[in-house]
């Protein structure tokens, strides 16, 4: 079986500041590069070598992944109280429970994406401010005290990179 039958996923890595290609069927196979094409080529070489090793050791190769087709239906179990509240809310809106649930799910997915983008923007702003404020001094972690009025709003945020890091998703 050739490596052509296996799939790859190529994504940008902020941590590595490069593209990373992985092969889902073989855990640990990856390639890294300054372009998606370079990362993919590196991963293909690694996969070819892994397949050779599997064949030399007479290990069975994992089956290649195939494209998923989705029916548009899935079943979800919810507590009775939530089911009741959802049905009441759907009736109040004058729509079916299915239509109401689809609207909630769609909104939730959009909100999750927007939240991630806002978090990246806030991290970028903090990084830039930190670089501007601390330039020339040893950079210490920014700490907030429990008495700071907005300290809880910044919990969970990390500062990555430095003030000159490129690739910002936020307007400057």
How many helices in DSSP terms? 3
Major beta sheet, specifics?
3 strands, antiparallel
How does the helix and strand content classify structurally? mainly alpha
What's the SSE pattern?
A: EEEHHH
Tally of strands: 3
Shape: flat
**Percentage of residues in helical conformation:** 40-55%
Rg for CA atoms: 24 Å
Strand content: 5-15%
Strand neighbour order, sheet with most strands? 1-2-3
Distance between the termini: 50 Å
Q: Domains counted in the coordinates: how many?
A: 2
Whole-number average pLDDT?
80
Uncertain parts: 144-154, 157-169
Give a quick rundown of the structure.
The chain has 172 residues and is mainly alpha-helical. The chain is built from 3 helices and 3 strands. Helices cover 42% and strands 8% of the residues.
